[in-house]
Amino acid sequence: xxxxxxxxxxxxKMEIDVRPGEIVGLIGPxxxxxxxxxxxxSGTYIPAEGSIRWHDEEIVGRSPSxxxxxxxxxxxxxxxxxxxxxxxxxxxxxxxxxxPSGGLRQFFFGNRRQDNDLTDxxxxxxxLADHRDSPLQVLSYxxxxxxxxxxxLAGEPDLLLLDEPVAxxxxxxxxxxxxxxxxxxxxxxxxxxxxxxxxxxxxSTCDRIVVMAAGAKIFEGSGAGVQSDPEVRRVYLGDA
Length: 240
Ligand SMILES: Nc1ncnc2c1ncn2[C@@H]1O[C@H](COP(=O)(O)OP(=O)(O)OP(=O)(O)O)[C@@H](O)[C@H]1O
Ligand SMILES: [Mg+2]
Fold this sequence. Notes:
Organism: Metarhizobium album
Oligomer: single chain
Strand order of the largest sheet: 6-7-8-3-9-10
Domain ABC transporter: 3-239
CATH superfamily of the domain at 3-83 and 155-237: P-loop containing nucleotide triphosphate hydrolases
CATH architecture of the domain at 3-83 and 155-237: 3-Layer(aba) Sandwich
Protein name: ABC transporter ATP-binding protein
Largest sheet: 6 strands, mixed
Keywords: ATP-binding, Nucleotide-binding, Transport
Distance between the termini: 32 Å
Order of helices and strands: EEEHEEHEHHHHEHEHEEHH
Strand content: 15-25%
Bound molecules: adenosine-5'-triphosphate, magnesium ion
GO molecular function: ATP binding; ATP hydrolysis activity; L-isoleucine transmembrane transporter activity; L-phenylalanine transmembrane transporter activity; L-valine transmembrane transporter activity
Number of helices: 10
Helix content: 40-55%
CATH class of the domain at 3-83 and 155-237: Alpha Beta
């Protein structure tokens, strides 16, 4: 696909093929176009040219809410919204995108059993169970990143787009988050695209890696391939 802002080409002929059950890492220097590409797949931007095939459907230009309903879930590079909601309510919002919960009353006053299920499945494994009734804004940055992942996963997506899920998160927590993403991938068999700068997390989590630079794909292959590819070393890792 190709994405332009005004006359500027931000993403040029970028192509990616993701299969169910696979975690693809999307890396590249700042400004390479990774977030722009994710925004196009999740419906925030409409590409100037190109196609996005989902099962047998052409979904280019579909709205974010439509895409969420058919199983395209995402997290955000900058978590900011939903600050006043509690952690559990945010997870319920993520859930309701795909699994209607029987009206607003039910949503907020709920069903204790459903709340406990969501807590066990999506909060406990991320160390968030003790915070389930806290508003998002009182949580640490690392916990807020984890809540965003829990929200996206609660919708049980078929395709999960993660935009820097562990940026700014301490190493131990980062590996725990990545491990949880892997376990959910195993359970749901979903496809995952993970944009991330933390190379140790990318290497240990992703089955395949795509490298973008200046809006285009410059490499696709294994972690070992990324580290030895001369073009990648030049534009991304530096020549040193
Ligand atoms: N809404 C917009 N209008 C104009 N230009 C934009 C817009 N969004 C992104 N760009 C430009 O598109 C290019 C790609 O940006 P993008 O945010 O996708 O990069 P990225 O690979 O996600 O970088 P980072 O690793 O820093 O998050 C940049 O040159 C950016 O300035
Ligand atoms: Mg980005």
